[in-house]
Amino acid sequence: MIVRNSAQSSNKSINNVDKVFFSAFLYVLLFVTVYYASTAEWLMFFLVCMCMCMLDFVFVHAFMCVRPYLNDYLSLLQQLTGTLALAVFAAALGSLQYGYSLGVINAPQKVIEKHYGRSLGVWSERVAALSENSTDEEKFSEAGEHPDVIKYWSLSVAIFSIGGMLSSFLVGFVGDLRGRVKGMLMVNVLAVAAGLLMGLCKMWKPHIMVISGRAVMGFYCGLTSGLVPMYIGEIAPKAYRGALGTLHQLAIVIGILISQVIGLDFVFGNDDMWPLLLGLSGAPAVLQSLLLPLCPESPRYLYIILGKDQEARKSLYRLKGAYDATFDLEEMRKEKEEADREPSVSILSLIRSSMYRQQLVVALMMHLSQQFSGINAIFYYSTAIFTRAGVGQPVYATIGVGVINTIFTLVSVALVDKAGRRTLTLVGLGGMCCCAVAMTVGLILQDKYSWMSYVSMSAIFLFVSFFEIGPGPIPWFIVAELFSQGPRPAAIALAGCCNWTSNFIIGMTFPYIQTWLDSYVFILFAVLLLGFAVFIYLRVPETKGKSFEEIAAVFQKGRKKSTQSPKDATELQQLKTATDA
């Protein structure tokens, strides 16, 4: 005991030294940055320091706790069976494809616009050369300036989100139709078809082929963004459900990073190779189709939905190896009894029901906090900030943001089952709020004070870091934790539709908001982030290490006094007999 206490004291001392060293380094760096500033700049420096102090408090105390958990993360890898690792990897390929499809359209924009212009007959290199020496307003030096090209390009980007919005409602139906594994297998046909449409777009009209391919790919991604977290959440051991659930977001950001790298003009983002760049969107689906038949079906689906207890036992043994499955089967038996009292709940029934209203509000707010946090605006605005900061090749700085994205998602994987979902989400939202304020200050003053551009750049990297710590990955899998088996598919479908709709709204409105608010645009996101943080602090329970039954009991406890009445029995009976979609 004395040795253990001494070791703990030693570790605490080391951690304190680390914190002091990091804080000292941060403030010395700030001091050196403004050493040559004039006296008039010190007031603004004080304001920036106030923001950095808040960031320092959150950053140091949040991220210095990563080191003690690294051994636990390594022990998780050692406890994973080969079958479980294969199943998670195979499912996450769908998330990788989702991330790749999100990012792949941005890099070759200028090249694709030229092909659109040629296909539409509104632009050519000869006309572009003539327009440079002409005053004719109807001639355009770049294809992207023509209204028809702008229209079709905007549709190419937006149609992806529209497809996801529509298909997200079908997640529960597809997942329950033939199971989670066969559901993911079936929808891969859409991904392959979309990849072929885009990869072969030069054979016909590129703008029609690309828009069609993006629509089909969006429809696929809307399904896989719900099926993947559902499957992983149901096969993951309770102790590591958060870490494995976070892999969905990790695969997404890796997909985005891959698309950014191979989208460079000297790789595939050029005039000759861009169709292949888009066509590769369907490649992960081919690999996933080869691996999924080797993966076991979700034990919860087999036991609770189909009532096949022996098949569920075999699936558990395949996923976890030789062990006593009595506890897991007993937990599923209780959940099945609960599900028999509340059979599959349709989307419309879930919206109308007061029994699940608290969980549903929490689930939707978690997804709203992810999309309305401003993260998409950051990716939209980062290149401009890096350009104004004097970065010679801003595209590489943007790729650096993608690298930070990936690294801190890995940090979240290591922390989520130790620090907890609620804690990491609050830390992430709080840090992002401070970064948004610091970014606003930097954007307003970087034309006047050159060193402010570095404040903006630092705030971008920190903003992305805090996003991937909690608000990015956690909403994807926490919905599956908040609901029991009956309403879970409908809840995931609604949350997915909310996410895709929010993404579409941000994508369509942010350029106008940016024009309206200019450098103050991130103040709007700071206010939203603060509101989301307050809501989560007051209304979202911690789900770490709890069974689905225990999580449901938390919400039932909050409404116990008002709901333990004949009204509950009547509403439950209505849910049982509901047949609406």
UniProtKB/TrEMBL annotation:
Subcellular location: Membrane
GO molecular function, one term: D-glucose transmembrane transporter activity
Membrane disposition: Multi-pass membrane protein
Record GO cellular component, one term: plasma membrane
Major place of residence: membrane
Highest taxon of source: Eukaryota
Pfam families hit by this protein: Sugar_tr (PF00083)
InterPro entries: GLUT (IPR045263), MFS_dom (IPR020846), MFS_sugar_transport-like (IPR005828), MFS_trans_sf (IPR036259), Sugar/inositol_transpt (IPR003663), Sugar_transporter_CS (IPR005829)
Domain Major facilitator superfamily (MFS) profile positions: 87-544
UniProt keyword annotations, A-Z: Membrane, Transmembrane, Transmembrane helix, Transport
RNA-binding keyword on record: no
One GO BP annotation of this record: dehydroascorbic acid transport
Regions of compositional bias (Polar residues) in chain numbering: 563-581
Transmembrane segments: 20-37, 43-64, 76-100, 152-173, 185-205, 211-232, 244-268, 274-295, 360-383, 395-416, 423-445, 451-469, 490-513, 519-538
Region (Disordered): 559-581
UniProt xrefs under Gene3D superfamilies: MFS general substrate transporter like domains
Keyword Membrane listed: yes
Family named by the database record: Belongs to the major facilitator superfamily. Sugar transporter (TC 2.A.1.1) family.
Name under which the protein is recorded: Solute carrier family 2 member 2
Organism expressing this protein natively: Sander lucioperca
Gene that encodes it: slc2a2
